[in-house]
Structure formats: C-alpha cells, structure tokens
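Our platform keeps sequence and structure together, in a single record for each protein. This encoding replaces a full spatial description with a residue-level series of whole-number codes. We quote a single record here, exactly as it is kept in our systems:
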Amino acid sequence: MNLLLRFKSIWIYTTLLAFLGSCFACGYKPSYLQKGKTAEVSERWRVEEINPARLSADEKSVLETFGTPDYIRFFRKRSLDREKVYAWIYAEPVRFVTFIDGKKVDYAVLDEDLSSLNDHQRDMLFWGGVTVATVAALGLLYYYFIAKK
C-alpha cells in the first residue's frame, strides 16, 4: 500500500511539473524583440524596442528601410513542415513583411493554428492514442475477468 501511495505522489508531481513547464515553454515571442507588449490578438506583440544584434541580414535590411514595425505576429506556414513565420506589421503606411527562419519571403500561405503538427501527424497521434487506449482496456478486461482466476 505504501508503494502505491509513493507512486501516486510521484505521478502527481510529474504531471504538475509538466503542466507548469508547458506554460513557460509555449511562447513564440521572437528573441530579437527586446521590449514589447502583448496585443489583443493571439501571439501578436506591440513593438517597443528591437535588438538589432539578433536580427538576420534580411531582417536588418527591412528594419533599416522601413524602421521599427508597429506589431510582430507569429504564424505557421501552411505546409507539411509547418515552419515558424514572423510577420512584421506596419500601420502607417500599411505594410506586411513576412520572415521564415530570418529570410524575407514575398508570399507565404499562413495558418493561425500554432501547432507544429500537420493534419496527417494529428490524425496519426489521435488514432495511435485510440489504438493504445483500446489495447490497454482489452488487456485490463482480460486480466480482471479471465487471467485473475
């Protein structure tokens, strides 16, 4: 009985640590954004200060040409790779500049879904979970009704 209580407490602490750790790890704020405030829109920051030392060559050239953007927004590229895309948004005059891995891209199909998994990977994860749960349930039923005797 003592072993079971010890296992439950370890499980509870591990789960709690995983949930708390995921809260800190799921930020998509770019590393070059020194000061910025979150905006009303998800994964969008109002830019106050950018660290030019952390910018790529394309980002530096856009910064020198157009100045500091008003907002930076995070998207995922709608593709199998689901690459990270940062969009620099200028309000006056309206401009929308996108970067994938620090390289300026003229056109990218953007997705607001921030998951790094594509549709096929999501389906595989879902059906894999259903399969594992079914096998575990059948194993438990077999153990309790047939093998326990």
Observations:
- Residues 119-147 form the longest helix (29 residues).
- The chain has two domains: 27-116, 117-149.
- The chain is about 40% helix and 25% strand.
